[in-house]
């Protein structure tokens, strides 16, 4: 293990070529373009992804060879979530829509629309039956009732929503102006706080602690901030960097049992960390391309992650690389979490 602040990168960080990890298997029938979000179902039976080519796909976690559900939105899908009962899936897309997939019938319907692309969506049925919340680049967070077309509540913001997370009755939203909004979902609009992060570059991802007493923030500047609601304990550290190169932190996943966390980034890496000891737990070799999304299974035994171009180097790099999108399933070992 190594301290957060120390560099432990070796010369193989920037190597190219297809990398595989121990205890890791690869999905087949994956989308052709970059994977934007990966999520396990609540019952831990399925794992799914959405992508920039409009594909939404799901596999049984015990069978990575062939997807069992396939939907095509014909527009980039930025995010999705499972309903609490796993019978429906909600999507957020570039066509400014919040969609709903009925798993039993295969029907896709609109829940509602923003004025600009929607990049986050979460099911709230555990707290408020039939409610869904979405965040958008139109500077709003909207609460929807899936039984009606008009919004239940619209929260007007000062800046675009960059990232969101929901856990229990807590919701956090990171905005383009570096502010983080924290909401008590029991009250929806009457109980929230706003704080400005000390990270100097735009926010990329956010994930609430297992203990729900704070959250992790990842930035485009290759830094992660561990933000406690008790500010005295908060800190930040450098990650997803190689020598003088700085890469975005694309996603953060919290282990549901141990409370440790994984970060994935534009440096082609999956890293595992412990906030309590402030140490990196596992530092595997780099993949051949950026790691763009990740999620732990609900029992914490597995980590699914997507590998593909994050477009930070331009389309010329993608054409030269000629590498396909990959999605992997990693069986976690005790020393990694």
UniProtKB/TrEMBL annotation:
Keywords: Repeat, WD repeat. The keyword Transmembrane helix does not apply. Residues 1-23 are annotated as: Disordered. WD repeats lie at residues 111-154. Residues 1-22 have a biased composition (Polar residues). It holds the Pfam family WD40. InterPro entries: WD40/YVTN_repeat-like_dom_sf, WD40_repeat_CS, WD40_repeat_dom_sf, WD40_rpt. This is mRNA export factor. It comes from Anaeramoeba flamelloides.
């Amino acid at each position: 293990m190594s301290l957060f602040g120390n560099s432990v990168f070796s010369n193989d960080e920037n190597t190219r070529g297809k990398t595989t990890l121990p205890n890791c298997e690869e999905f087949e029938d994956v989308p052709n373009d970059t994977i934007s979000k990966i999520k396990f179902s609540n019952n831990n039976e399925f794992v799914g992804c959405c992508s920039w080519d409009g594909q939404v796909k799901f596999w049984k976690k015990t069978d990575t060879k062939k997807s069992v559900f396939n939907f095509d939105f014909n527009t980039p899908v930025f995010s999705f979530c499972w309903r609490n009962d796993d019978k429906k899936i909600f999507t957020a897309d570039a066509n400014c829509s919040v969609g709903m997939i009925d798993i039993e019938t295969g029907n896709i319907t609109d829940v509602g629309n923003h004025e600009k692309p929607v990049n986050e969506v979460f099911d709230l049925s555990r707290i408020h039956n039939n409610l869904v919340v979405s965040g958008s680049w139109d500077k709003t967070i909207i609460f929807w009732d899936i039984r009606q077309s008009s919004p239940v509540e619209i929260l007007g913001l000062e800046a675009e929503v960059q990232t969101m997370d929901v856990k229990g009755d807590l919701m956090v939203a990171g905005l383009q102006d570096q502010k983080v909004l924290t909401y008590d979902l029991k009250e929806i609009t009457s109980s929230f706080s706003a704080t400005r992060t000390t990270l100097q570059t735009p926010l990329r991802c956010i994930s609430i602690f297992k203990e729900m007493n704070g959250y992790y923030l990842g930035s485009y500047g290759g830094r992660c901030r561990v933000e406690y609601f008790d500010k005295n304990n908060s800190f930040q550290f450098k990650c997803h960097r190689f020598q003088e190169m700085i890469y975005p932190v694309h996603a953060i996943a919290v282990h549901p049992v141990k409370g440790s966390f994984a970060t994935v980034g534009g440096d082609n890496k999956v890293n595992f960390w412990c906030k309590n000891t402030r140490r990196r737990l596992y530092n595997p070799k780099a993949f051949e391309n950026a790691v763009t999304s990740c999620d732990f299974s609900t029992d914490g035994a597995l980590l699914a992650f997507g590998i593909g171009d994050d477009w930070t180097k331009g389309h010329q790099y993608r054409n030269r690389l000629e590498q396909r999108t990959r999605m992997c399933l990693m069986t976690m070992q005790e020393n990694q979490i």
